[in-house]
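Task card 7
Instruction: Convert sequence to structure tokens.
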Amino acid sequence: MMLIPTPKIIDDYIKEIHTGSFVNVKQLRREIANQYKADMSCPMVTGISLRIVSEAAYEEYKKYMILDQITPFWRVVEPDSSLAHKLTCGIDFLIENQIRENISL
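Output:
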């Protein structure tokens, strides 16, 4: 059985990642599939949901400028990934926040 993860599922998962930790997308997919007792998580829908979560979080940041109240998507998105190149925030935003949290990839 394949899990089709909603943005809410992805958002909830990311919010549980501890400061300074990084989880790659493969691990995220595996862990949410296990959580929902599925064999796997759809890679395409996971990517789409992750982009939705990332863009929504960045919109919130731009609106209120409060970093610690948004979903910390930089804990999942690798700066050299194809997703990172599509995000409105830009790669520098990801890298700056990963450096701030001492995340090394």
